[in-house]
Amino acid sequence: MNVAGRLMAATIWFDIQIELKLQDAHHLKQRVFIRRDAVRESDWRLLCRLMLNAR
Prior knowledge:
Elements: E1 6-13, E2 17-23, E3 29-35, H1 41-54
Antiparallel strand pairs: 1-2, 2-3
């Protein structure tokens, strides 16, 4: 899946999934959920670090 847009918010849900709220060039908002079991462990750790540092 390809999703593009500006990151508006991100939430880590109980170390199970990450919710990304995006807004595209047409100001349409999208929510993307990434589950922990859908990615490699190293990628999951990187995503969590990026989300926590973005705050």
